Amino acid sequence: MAAYYAQDASLNLRGRPAEVEQTWRTLLPLCxxxxxxxxxxxxxxxxxxxxSSVIASAICTHVSQRIAPSDSPHDDHVKQHSFLVANYALLxxxxxxxxxxxxxxxxALPFEDIVSSYKKTYAARETNARVAKEPEKIVGARMSGxxxxxxxxxxxxxxxxxxxxxxxxxxxEREKLxxxxxxxxxxxx
Length: 189
Hints:
The chain is an all-alpha fold.
C-alpha cells in the first residue's frame, strides 16, 4: 500500500492520474487471500479487513476522478459511453466491497478493542482532526506521519499503513511474538 501510495503521489506531481488497474486492483485480491491465514486470529483478520476497506476506498477515489476520454474532438460516442459504463461498474463494485470489508473489520476488531487492548496504538493516533484536511507530506522516501482512529472511508492508504505497522508491533508485543517488523516509513533501506 505504501509503494502504491508513493507511486500515486509521484504521478500526481507530474500531472498524471493514478494507476488503478495494475496496482490497487491487484492489491485487493492479494489482501483478501490472506484471510485463510488471519481467520484464526480475530484481531489480525480485523486489521486485514480494515486494510481491504481502505484499498477499495482508494480504488473508488481514483475511479471517481476519471473523466471520459476525449483525445480528439471527434471522439466516438460509443467509446465514451463504454468508458463511463465501465467506470460506473468499477466504482459501484468497489463501493460495495469497501462497505462489506469495513463491516467485517468492525466485527473482528471493534474500535473499543483498539482502545482497551491496544493502548499504544490508540495513544499514537492523531487527535487534531484539522490535520486530516491537510495534504500528506512525503519527504524523499519518508512516509511517516499521523493516522486517525477509527479507520473509515476517508482514511488514506498511507494512514492505514501507519496504523497497521503500529498495531502489528503492539500485537506482537502483546502475544509475546519475537518478530521485528522490517518496514520502516522513516528510513530508506
